[in-house]
Amino acid sequence: MIPEQFNNQTNELDALNRRRFFATSASGLGTLALASLMKQDGLFASDPTTQLSHIAPRAKRCIYLFMEGGPSQMDLFDPKPKLNELDGQPMPESILKDIKFAFIQKEAARLMGSPRTFRRYGECGMELSDLLPHLSTCVDDIAMIRSMHCEQFNHLPGQLMMLSGSDLQGRPTLGSWLNYGLGSESQNLPGYVVLATLGRGLPGGASSWSSGFLPSQYAGTLFRNQGSPVLNLANPTGLSSQAQQRSLQTINELNGLRFDQIGNPEIASRIKAYELAFRMQQTAPELLDLSGETKTTLEEYGVTREDTSKTNTGFMGSYARNCLLARRMVERGVRFVTLFLSTWDHHSSLDSGLKRYTQISDQPIAALLKDLKRRGLLDETLVVFGGEFGRTPLGENRVNFKKVTGRDHHPYSYSMWLAGGGIKGGQVIGETDEIGWGVTKDPVHVHDLHATILQLFGLDHKKLTYQFQGRDFRLTDVSGNVVEKLLA
Predict the structure, then answer these.
(1) Domain boundaries in the chain?
(2) Beta strands in 286-421 (DSSP E)
(3) pLDDT tens per residue across span 402-446
(4) Measured between alpha carbons, how far is 369 from 300 in angstroms, rounded to an integer?
(5) Structure confidence at residue 114 (pLDDT)
(6) Cα–Cα distance, 244 to 236 (Å, whole number)
(7) Would the pTM count as exceeding 0.90?
């Protein structure tokens, strides 16, 4: 148990410093986070989020299933029979003239059909690929967007754009903005947690969950899904709980004195980090202990599935475990959980690559949606699925490729889906042309998606700002419109 005296002292100092920071912040949302802290201190009798949010919130938590590399939409979510008819045909030069590709040689590029079969599922009749048998049972809870688009056609800027609303490093990510605006519901776990199942890694590294210019307490915390969740969380051998308590009390007192002298909000973040780490020593190991989950639940997620693949060995169990942990985290009040799965970047061997990665992800994702719904959590938990862009309808004819078996990057039209958290499920939003090259109806830009997500959490994207280097920044920069069709 955490000593009551230490709790009282650190909570008092932490709350004082955080309130002082938010009260003096130039942010338009400082009052929201301040209200959240005052509620935690018992100074609000009712829910301050309802009183102070810009819009009535529909979601409280978010699980972002980020598919690094860019899944192929016409092989998974957006069937294109005409593309199959035109397989092997060239694209008109007028269309390709001003287009940039990562690797395709435009002069010899040819359209490439899909070997996948599509069927209609659910009461809504949504069409999905045969590679998604589990997700097909959840379509009535899903809103599919087939008209996503952006400007970035390489991985790093594309991922930064999707995660932070900017193609530049150093900007706060979506999870950081939400925790900054609303505060954390959990006292014993970070408000923003990252779980990763990675092959080649992430081009942006920690930039993918950075707090950017926001105080560092809003950055994502990278968890491992077995053993110690965070490196160096356990005490060194021989350090007693009493000695640790005295040490942290002294450190917090010194940090508090320094904060009084210079008022640097990063000192308040440091105090918060020490306190949270102390609490996590008690709570984080229990979070990762799945022994209390039923055999049925473990099998539903696929945690115990045998993985016989010679590549990315262990990915099936790892990703299934991450999906189950995401449910356990939102149950415990974690505001934002990102699950990375790398890599969907199929420049070659597209068919076998998609089979492998849908085998890894389809079952646990469907289990997550059903589990959240069964537990009454889906209504207040927004689930987002997607990558940084899609794949081109042209086959990739990269120099030195003996055979065309993959697709290049394609930001001009791609698919994502959302469920829960105020989303109107059982619908498809937007359309692309007959070969999947461009958007023909209801285009949705990344900034539109972010504006909609913030609205679901009760935040006006134009008012969620932070002053940095002389200007007010926001997640959606100077654009973005709420996609009203997505809202229930």
Answers:
(1) 54-239+283-486
(2) 336-342, 381-386, 390-395, 407-410, 414-419
(3) 899 999 999 999 999 999 999 999 999 999 999 999 999 999 999
(4) 11
(5) 98
(6) 10
(7) no
Instruction: Say which amino acid occupies 408.
Output: D
Nearest to 336 by CA among 182, 449, 171: 182
d(CA 362, CA 305): 13
Fold annotation for 54-239+283-486:
Alkaline Phosphatase, subunit A (3.40.720)
Per-residue pLDDT reduced to its tens digit, 323-364: 999 999 999 999 999 999 999 999 999 999 999 999 999 999
Residue whose structure tokens are 């992430």: 202
Interatomic CA distance for residues 160 and 465, integer angstroms: 19
8 Å CB contact between 33 and 22:
yes
Q: Could you tell me which of 48, 452, 387 has the C-alpha nearest to residue 202?
A: 387
Residue found by looking up tokens 């009390």 in the block: 249
402, two tokens: 């003996």
Distance between CA atoms of 128 and 136, rounded to whole angstroms? 7
d(CA 365, CA 142) in angstroms, rounded, equals 12
The residue behind tokens 């049925």 is 296
pLDDT tens-digit map of 447-463: 999 999 999 999 999 99
Question: Which residues, including other chains, have CB under 8 Å from residue 93's CB and lie 6 or more apart?
Answer: none
CA-wise closest residue to 142 among 473, 421, 375 = 421
User: CA–CA distance from 36 to each of 50, 185, 192, 321 (Å)?
Assistant: 11, 9, 16, 31
Q: How many residues does the chain have?
A: 488
User: Please, are residues 71 and 391 in contact by the beta-carbon 8 Å criterion?
Assistant: yes
Cα separation, 198 vs 202, in Å, equals 8
